[in-house]
Amino acid sequence: MTPMNNNDIQTALGQLNKSSNVPWKLVDGALQKSFKFNDFSEAFAWMTQVAITAEKMDHHPEWFNVYNKVDVTMVTHDANGITQLDFDLAAKMDSFA
Ligand SMILES: C[C@H](O)[C@H](O)[C@H]1CNC2=NC(N)=NC(=O)C2=N1
Fold it and tell me: Whose CA is nearest to atom 17 of ligand 1?
């Protein structure tokens, strides 16, 4: 899988962020977003949905959960950069939240 160039990343980021109130950001060459839920149960239910999708895609998030908050980092280590897979999974995460 080939990494996207910066131009394509900016375009895809704009597209992705059209449909969400909290924007994904480009931080240190990765997509990052912090998701907030009402409580741990809702956060973990969302993580479960994402985990099933991630497994199907064979593309997995780096994430850090404390109570109702999940900090997500998406990058494709295999490609040494951001790929379409990162944007695909990011869009799924938004749709489940
Ligand atoms: C061996 C396995 O297919 C690879 O390690 C896959 C799995 N999931 C992955 N997920 C993400 N986010 N980046 C990767 O580079 C990646 N590589």
Answer: 78
- pLDDT digit string, tens, across residues 24-46: 999 999 999 999 999 999 999 99
What contacts 53, CB < 8 A, 6 or more positions away?
A: 89, 92, 96
Q: At what angle do helices 40-57 and 84-96 cross, to 10 degrees?
A: 150
Which residues span the domain enclosing 69?
6-96
Instruction: Please work out whether the CB of residue 33 comes within 6 Å of at least one atom of ligand 1.
Output: no
- What amino acid is encoded at 61 in this protein? P
Q: Whose CA is nearest to atom 3 of ligand 1?
A: 58
| Number of structural domains found in the chain | 1
The 10 Å Cβ neighbour count of residue 53 is 17
- Measure 60 CA to ligand 1 centroid, in angstroms: 6
With respect to residue 1, please indicate whether it lies within any of the assigned structural domains: no
